[in-house]
Every structure is written in structure tokens, then in C-alpha cells.
């Protein structure tokens, strides 16, 4: 039996709705984002100013805070930078090379996402400690990793490497091998194929992976505190200093440090996003020309 015309009209989306249920999905998404993300960030921004400007002025004059911020951002940047070539090599091996046990290697890359960060920190501290499997030989050579800023970089490299690999791997899978073969037939050497053919295409993904690893490194806590030594002005990170201030019941100081860390992190991530857009636009412009 045929349905009336007005019943058929009800089944279609309302004018202005791109998809059925779009308005409900949009409202739900905005509500949860506001409740989970926007509201806590707003509270963090407002809280340091509730007791006047004294807490913020004291925080801006705290040399220990600036030392912790410098260590956090420097080690996160170095770790993400060192992860880039390692991540590219791993992604290239997973996509291009037929490695034995490839599935095992693929699962191990995602392991830092799954294991608790405290387990990572204890394992690295045991491994690189003065009596550890790697720490003892390195100590014999005069190299100290555990309880130094170098140990922080090692821990952040461990947790940040999957971001580089998983950002580059999908783009590399879509990259046609015929381009590499054509470049080789035209006389290009392997390093020229890598630098002039592959890397320009992979650059936006590399910048994105670098930004994710850098952002993770700035706020990393559990995997760092066990290997860092936590010495003020030497190996103390900003998240740990926030915890120290909370243990001292200095809530104004803790939120002030968190506010400064939030602003600094937002500026750095905005810079990484701007760089990624510039690289992508340059790549598109080069392809059009």
C-alpha cells in the first residue's frame, strides 16, 4: 500500500540538516566537548586569579618553575626530534621491507600506548640505572643516563616514538613505489630518492607526528619521574613541580604553574600546527607548478 505524500516528506531530513540526525549529533558533541575539555580549561584559567594577582606574580618570579619548564620543553623537543629519523626508518621497514615477525614488531611499536607509564618509568630506571644492564656499561664509559636530563630524553623517546611511526606509516602506504623506481631509472641515487622524492611527500605527516610526540612529552609524568632523579634546577620537570606544590598545599602556586604550562604548550602546539599547514601548502603549490 502506498504511503501518503506527507508521510514520505517526514522521512527526509529537515531543510538545513546535511545528514539525518546531524543536529542531535552536533549538540551532543558540543556538550561533551564543553563538559570534558572547555570547562576544566576554563577553571584552570580562572583559578590562579581568584586570590588576586599575587599568586601569578609570585609564580612569574619563581626561578624553580622556569627551570622546570625549560627542562620539560627542552627534553620534549629533543626527544621528538630524535624520534623522527627512528620513526621514519621503522615506518619504512614496516611498509617497504618484508621483515620476519613483522606483526610482532608492529605490536611492539604500539606497546607504549598500552602499558602504564609508571611501569615504563620503573623499567627504564632499572635498565639504565648504575647497576642496570645498559647503565653499568655506560657508566664504565663515563656516560650517565639515569637520574639526569638524558634519562628524561630516553623516557620521552620511548613514549613518543609510536606517534611518529603511526603518522608516517599510512602516508607511506599510499605513496606509489613507481615514483621511486622512476627516479632510480633516471639516475637518482638512494639518498636523492629519499630526500627529493619521498621526504617532501611525507613532510606534513612527519610534522604532525613530531607535534604529537612533543605534546605528549611536555605533559609526561609517570615514565619520567623514576628515571629523572627529580633534582631541582637539574632534572625536575614541570608536571612534577605541580605535584610538589599540591603536596605543600600551595594550590595557588600549583594552578599558576599549570596555567603557565598551558599557555606555553598552546603556543608551541599552535606553532607546530602552523608549520604543518605551511608545509602542506608548499607541497600542494609545488605539485601544481
TrEMBL record:
<feature type="transmembrane region" description="Helical">
    <location>
        <begin position="22"/>
        <end position="46"/>
    </location>
</feature>
<comment type="subunit">
    <text>The complex is composed of two ATP-binding proteins (CysA), two transmembrane proteins (CysT and CysW) and a solute-binding protein (CysP).</text>
</comment>
<feature type="transmembrane region" description="Helical">
    <location>
        <begin position="67"/>
        <end position="95"/>
    </location>
</feature>
<dbReference type="GO" id="GO:0015419">
    <property type="term" value="F:ABC-type sulfate transporter activity"/>
</dbReference>
<feature type="transmembrane region" description="Helical">
    <location>
        <begin position="107"/>
        <end position="128"/>
    </location>
</feature>
<keyword id="KW-0812">Transmembrane</keyword>
<keyword id="KW-0472">Membrane</keyword>
<dbReference type="InterPro" id="IPR005667">
    <property type="entry name" value="Sulph_transpt2"/>
</dbReference>
<feature type="transmembrane region" description="Helical">
    <location>
        <begin position="251"/>
        <end position="275"/>
    </location>
</feature>
<comment type="function">
    <text>Part of the ABC transporter complex (TC 3.A.1.6.1) involved in sulfate/thiosulfate import.</text>
</comment>
<feature type="transmembrane region" description="Helical">
    <location>
        <begin position="140"/>
        <end position="165"/>
    </location>
</feature>
<dbReference type="InterPro" id="IPR000515">
    <property type="entry name" value="MetI-like"/>
</dbReference>
<keyword id="KW-0813">Transport</keyword>
<dbReference type="InterPro" id="IPR035906">
    <property type="entry name" value="MetI-like_sf"/>
</dbReference>
<keyword id="KW-1133">Transmembrane helix</keyword>
<keyword id="KW-0764">Sulfate transport</keyword>
<dbReference type="GO" id="GO:0005886">
    <property type="term" value="C:plasma membrane"/>
</dbReference>
<protein>
    <recommendedName>
        <fullName>Sulfate transport system permease protein CysT</fullName>
    </recommendedName>
</protein>
<feature type="domain" description="ABC transmembrane type-1">
    <location>
        <begin position="69"/>
        <end position="270"/>
    </location>
</feature>
<comment type="similarity">
    <text>Belongs to the binding-protein-dependent transport system permease family. CysTW subfamily.</text>
</comment>
<dbReference type="Pfam" id="PF00528">
    <property type="entry name" value="BPD_transp_1"/>
</dbReference>
<dbReference type="InterPro" id="IPR011865">
    <property type="entry name" value="CysT_permease"/>
</dbReference>
<comment type="function">
    <text>Part of the ABC transporter complex CysAWTP (TC 3.A.1.6.1) involved in sulfate/thiosulfate import. Probably responsible for the translocation of the substrate across the membrane.</text>
</comment>
Amino acid at each position: 500500500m502506498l504511503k501518503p505524500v506527507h508521510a514520505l516528506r517526514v522521512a527526509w531530513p529537515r531543510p538545513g540538516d546535511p545528514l539525518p540526525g546531524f543536529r542531535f549529533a552536533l549538540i551532543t558533541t558540543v556538550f561533551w566537548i564543553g563538559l570534558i575539555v572547555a570547562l576544566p580549561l576554563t577553571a584552570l584559567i580562572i583559578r590562579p586569579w581568584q586570590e588576586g594577582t599575587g599568586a601569578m606574580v609570585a609564580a612569574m618570579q619563581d626561578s624553580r618553575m622556569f627551570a622546570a619548564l625549560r627542562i620539560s620543553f627542552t627534553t620534549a623537543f629533543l626527544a621528538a626530534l630524535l624520534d623522527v629519523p627512528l620513526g621514519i626508518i621503522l615506518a619504512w621497514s614496516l611498509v617497504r621491507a618484508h621483515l620476519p615477525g613483522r606483526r610482532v614488531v608492529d605490536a611492539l611499536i604500539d606497546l607504549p600506548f598500552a602499558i602504564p607509564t609508571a611501569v615504563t618509568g620503573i623499567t627504564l630506571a632499572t635498565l639504565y640505572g648504575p647497576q642496570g644492564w645498559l647503565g653499568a656499561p655506560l657508566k664504565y664509559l663515563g656516560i650517565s643516563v639515569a637520574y639526569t636530563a638524558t634519562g628524561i630524553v630516553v623516557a620521552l623517546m620511548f613514549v613518543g616514538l609510536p606517534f611518529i611511526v603511526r603518522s608516517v606509516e599510512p602516508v607511506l602506504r599510499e605513496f606509489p613505489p613507481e615514483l621511486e623506481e622512476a627516479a632510480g631509472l633516471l639516475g637518482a641515487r638512494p639518498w636523492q630518492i629519499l630526500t627529493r622524492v619521498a621526504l617532501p611527500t611525507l613532510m606534513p605527516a612527519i610534522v604532525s607526528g613530531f607535534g604529537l610526540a612533543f605534546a605528549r612529552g611536555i605533559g609526561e609524568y609517570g615514565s619520567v619521574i623514576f628515571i629523572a632523579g627529580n633534582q631541582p634546577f637539574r632534572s625536575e620537570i614541570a608536571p612534577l613541580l605541580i605535584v610538589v606544590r599540591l603536596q605543600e598545599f600551595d594550590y595557588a602556586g600549583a594552578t599558576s604553574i599549570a596555567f603557565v604550562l598551558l599557555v606555553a604548550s598552546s603556543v608551541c602546539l599552535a606553532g607546530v600546527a602552523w608549520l604543518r599547514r605551511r608545509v602542506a601548502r608548499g607541497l600542494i603549490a609545488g605539485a601544481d607548478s
